[in-house]
Design a protein that fits this description.
The chain is of the alpha/beta class. It has helices at residues 95-102, 125-132, 152-157, 159-162, 172-182, 199-211, 229-246, 257-261, 281-286, 291-298, 305-309, 341-345, and strands at 20-21, 45-58, 64-79, 84-88, 110-115, 118-119, 135-138, 217-221, 249-254, 266-271, 274-280. The two termini are 38 Å apart. The structure holds adenosine-5'-triphosphate, iron/sulfur cluster (SF4) and magnesium ion. Residues 45-297 form the ABC transporter domain.
């Protein structure tokens, strides 16, 4: 199937693993990804100690800052060409804020985001726009993220208004039709409106728009959450095909560990603005060591009745605390059944626990990280 003209070259080496880490304090050293033997090239994206604080203010005339919502708090990870990092966590844990930071819709409060070595948090104006051409977003809800008054052609071609160099005016219609074809839509439907498409087709339109500038990285913020289960698989399969075809790197965000399982090379479990545990799929799903990951996995639906009977559901008490006033020490301690006095006094670093071996030896931000088969 043809790609967007001049688009990224097809990936040649298939999936590779990426590293993801979050030091528990801003001063903790980042955990860089080890270059794999198959791909010694530096990561496409290097995120270090990334933080976004939204100030809380009081006063009508004279505004006084009374605190801050720590939406994303010292998150670090690397992403290599052709990889997928799945980011999972409950509502309000900072997933969308992280996504907006990565694509430049928000400026970080602290930390760096390096795209091919260049710190985009320090760029502005034309230089920033040029870099952000390479990092595009696919939004959660295909029903609200597409302007109902614009044709599909205008929606998919909209990025060319900001980056006219990507497709000269005379070529745009053809470029958009190619994109529609690439995502499995009929190029003849270029003049239709979003309401004339199903949910899955609308998300394909959003994906085509995300591909228009031939990015290297796509940040997909819950791209299938609003879709029926049967359609979810089609969209995930499409994203996988596009990844293989164009060597795209994905940050794929979801609420649910089962959604990212199939597509992710590595998974980062997020809680209250930080990564709690990171690892490859088998490490996270078969050898989870952080109590939060274990609780999330215990809630994942299991089709096999025998396996379902043998497992224990871990019910977490209470709600996620406010990111404006996170618990001291370990942020998960107010809901953790394993919490001890040390957990309130000392924030656990995201590091590989020295006592753990095999699949359990991966980064976990828990003082008492321990393997517990959840599914
Ligand atoms: N512009 C803002 N101003 C103040 N607080 C904000 C802002 N945007 C997000 N927040 C807060 O930051 C925290 C993280 O929000 P975010 O939308 O990133 O979470 P999320 O993980 O994407 O949640 P969901 O799964 O519901 O989409 C929340 O407490 C939210 O209320
Ligand atoms: S550090 Fe303590 S509170 Fe935090 S996850 Fe581990 S056991 Fe639970
Ligand atoms: Mg969100």
């Amino acid at each position: 199937m043809p790609g967007p003209e001049g688009g990224p070259a097809p990936a040649t080496s298939g999936r590779r693993s990426c590293m993801a880490s979050t030091p528990s304090t801003p001063s903790a050293p980042p955990v860089p990804s080890a270059p794999s033997a198959a791909d010694p090239a530096p990561p496409v994206l290097e995120v270090r100690d990334l933080a976004k604080l939204y100030p809380l203010t009081r006063g009508a005339l004279v505004k006084r800052q009374t605190g801050a919502v720590r939406a994303v708090d010292t998150v670090s990870f690397d992403l290599r060409r052709g990889e997928t990092l799945g980011v999972v966590g409950e509502s309000g844990c900072g997933k969308s804020t992280l996504a907006r930071l990565l694509v430049g819709l928000e400026r970080p409060t602290a930390g760096s985001i390096r795209y091919r070595g260049e710190d985009i948090a320090r760029l502005s104006g034309r230089a920033l726009r040029a870099v952000h051409r390479n990092i595009q977003m696919v939004f959660q809800d295909p029903y609200t993220s597409l302007n109902p008054r614009m044709t599909v052609g205008d929606i998919v071609g909209e990025p060319y208004e900001i980056h006219p160099e990507a497709a000269p005016k005379g070529d745009r219609r053809r470029a958009v039709q190619e994109l529609l074809d690439v995502v499995g839509l009929n190029p003849e439907h270029i003049n239709r409106y979003p309401h004339q498409f199903s949910g899955g087709q609308r998300q394909r339109i959003g994906i085509a728009r995300g591909l228009a500038l031939r990015p290297e990285v796509i940040v997909a913020d819950e791209p299938v959450s609003a879709l029926d289960v049967s359609v979810q698989a089609q969209v995930v399969n499409l994203l996988e095909r596009l990844q293989d075809e164009f060597g795209l790197a994905y940050v794929f965000i979801a609420h649910d560990l089962s959604v990212v399982r199939h597509i992710s090379d590595r998974v980062a479990v997020m809680y209250l603005g930080r990564f709690a545990e990171t690892g490859t799929g088998p490490e996270i799903y078969d050898h989870p060591t952080h109590p939060y990951t274990q609780a999330l996995l215990s809630a994942v639906p299991v089709p096999d009745p025998e396996a379902r009977e043998g497992r224990t559901r871990i019910l977490l008490p209470g709600d996620v605390p406010s990111p404006a006033d996170p618990p001291t020490g370990c942020r998960f301690r107010t809901r953790c059944w394993r919490a001890e006095a040390r957990c309130a006094a000392e924030a656990p670093a995201l590091a590989v626990p020295t006592a753990l071996t095999g699949g359990a030896a991966h980064p976990s931000a828990c003082h008492f990280a321990e393997e517990r088969a959840a599914v």
